[in-house]
Amino acid sequence: MIIFFFFKQKTAYEIKECDWSSDVCSSDLEESGGMGWSAPELLGEIVRSTPRPYSDLPTILLSFHGEDEEGVFRRGVLWALGRMAEVGIDDIEGSRKLLLASLEDDDPRTRGMAAWAATRLAYGGAASRLETLRGDQNRFRVYEDGELVEKTVGQSAAAALKVLART
User: Fold this and answer.
1) 55 in helix, strand or coil?
2) For the segment 45-67, what is each residue's pLDDT rounded down to a tens digit?
3) N or C terminus: which one in the chain shows less Cβ crowding within 10 Å?
4) What domain count does the chain have?
5) Which CATH number characterizes residue 150's domain?
């Protein structure tokens, strides 16, 4: 399934036509270990690298969260939103709502990834929630600048607040 993602024109059509709930996330695939665990990250990088032919993919990407009752894809969606925002793709319907909810998530990895994404999305409406995370010493890992780094949620929240103060 992943191989067709790399053929530009056909790719956009294939991704749009794919029924994620049955093709990527079905319980049969999940039980066999064939689930598309990194699909949000993959789609985010595709859009980040070549946004023009895939302009409708961010909305599809965000839909992963809507069908994700257990939060399996949430951190991947947040990471993809942050990566796309680095190249100016930052006004995706529903992304702010997801960001705000994720900043209050019980899972510190999700809060950390949301704070990391907030640094890139520069959404001023997240400031009060980010402020409450400043002292959060829970750790999470994120891939940035070519390497996997460990940060605290508070470090990412402080970085996001610093960006917001400049905007």
Assistant:
1) coil
2) 888 888 777 777 787 777 766 55
3) C
4) 1
5) 1.25.10
